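Hi U.,

Before I forget, here's the chain from the pilot set. I'm dumping it here mostly so it's searchable later in email.
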Amino acid sequence: MPKYQAAEYIRLSYTDDRMSESDSVSNQRKLIENFVLQNADIEVIEEKIDDGYSGIIFDRPAFKEMMQDVTDGKINCVIVKDLSRLGREYIETGRYLRRIFPAYGVRFIAINDNIDTARENCGDDLAVSVKNIMNEAYCRDISIKTRSSLDVKRRNGDFVGAFPIYGYLKSSESKNKLEPDPYASRVVRDIFRMRLEGSSASRIAAELNRLCVLSPLAYKKNNGLPYAKRGYADKENCKWSATTVIRILQDETYTGTLVQGKQGTPHYKIKTVEQHPSSDWIRVPGAHEAIIPQHDFELVQRIRHLDTRTAPAQDTVYLFSGVIVCGCCGARMTRKTNRAGGKEYHYYYCPTGKKHGCDHSVMLKENDLTACVRDALKSYIDNVVSLEALLSGIDQQRINQELTQEYTDQITANERRSGQYQEFKSRLYENMVQGILTKEEFVTMKGNYSAEIERLKAAVSDLKAKLEDVMENRSERNRWISHFTQFATLQELDRKVVVQLIQSIRVMSKNELRITFNYADEYQKALALLTSAEQRKAG
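Structure:
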């Protein structure tokens, strides 16, 4: 009977060249089998394979199984192709060679490195230590190169993840590009549509489950698509949940912007994944086809920050939830229902109360509020429609050219003056040393020059902002108009109209509302452009 009951251990790293046969599973197996044939005192009783595991870590499933067999006394010999297959971490690999294996009477053999602990002093050989250090250095070098390569790909807009998010597939032309999944992308659009229409995340999830729409995980499993096998992934009946819906609503990837680098390992020896701050994420707009328009995505994010509480028995968000605020204290007003004579009456009131410093005692009927806001909105939309007509009748290109030249000349003049003041300021100390200026004069003039330089810098910054606005494409600058004109025939209010067109409604009294519409800045810029056109026409 052979003296040694051996385990052949095979490891293939995810960084190994899969096109090369030298480190393949079959090659490692064949090399070990040939070695055993030449050594009659060894019998291989098991084979352990870790495919896709780094040599830096020892938390590998097959390796742990093998070590359990060592502990149980089932094997007393471990055979590998070379020392790097056991591990590439200098200290830990050395610990197994010098402490753990000897403690259990285990013979260790690395064939290509000519290491056999059955030979005297082999485990303490200097060459072994050198090989361990070289293996770790190799792993460190590979890690640096891999991280650098992935970083370059991310910045170029290449997708480097293993699993595309729900709604996308890896492109058939390139695994580093995403393309919409014909079915799942429609579900994503439905989710955003329902959210804009006022449905809560819970309501959306319930509706999708009612319609028997497969959840992201269930869809991937049902269609044989790759998915992350962790957490709740092993549950058989994966249903839609509010959490899943919220995750989709928050993902910027659906706008065509590829966001990567959200998490990673801090060091090549540490495999614990940690979350990176959003400032370190790599964002590449236009990396793939968008499923959701940018405006709709931004609108949904705005809704997230509003007070979108619903009644206990309802799943639909109130019409003015998060939008209506008290004109006295700024608190969000609360919807209240009173019942009388078998009928329901809805009101909005400030929950702060006089006890907490708010003297606003307005109780506003929802019907009156709705009618007032609807009329104000219709009037504003009419103004925007008229504005669009006026803008189309002027030569914006010519005006933009004139404004560009005007702002550029002003910027140049101010920068030149700022440079002069800076030069004057730099000469002050020399003038004081030469006795031309007193210390008091030096301090005063330095302060004056510094103040003038800062004033000119502020003016330049403001002019550059105006210049940038002018140089924007007209269609881009006036695109906001379409968000209003699409509701030109508005008759009734709904949640989508309110959140898309209204920033806030401040209730000053029963007879006074102050409505702030979205795109108020763009509206004022358009009016300024018209004013400028009229002035040039008159001149």
